[in-house]
Write the C-alpha cells for this entry.
Amino acid sequence: MLKSTIVPVVSAGIWFSVSEFFRNEVLIKGLWVDHYASLGLVFPGEPINGLVWGLWSMAFAACIHVMLTRFSFWETLALAWTV
C-alpha cells in the first residue's frame, strides 16, 4: 500500500520540479530576469529557491494524490489547475 502511494507521488513531484526548472531556468529565464529588473529586484536564482520549489512540487503531488482518492479524474484536474 505504502509503495503504491509513495512511488507515484515522488515521481510526479520530480516531474513537476524538472519541468518547472527547465521552463524557468532554460526556456524563459531571460524574461524573468528582465521582469524582476523592471521591478527593481534581482531574479531569485539561488539554490535555496530551487529547494523551496522542489518541496512545493512534492506537496502539490501529494495533494493531487489525495484529491484523486476523493474526486473523479476531471474534478481533480480542475482543482489541481485552479490551485
Residues 2-82 form one domain.
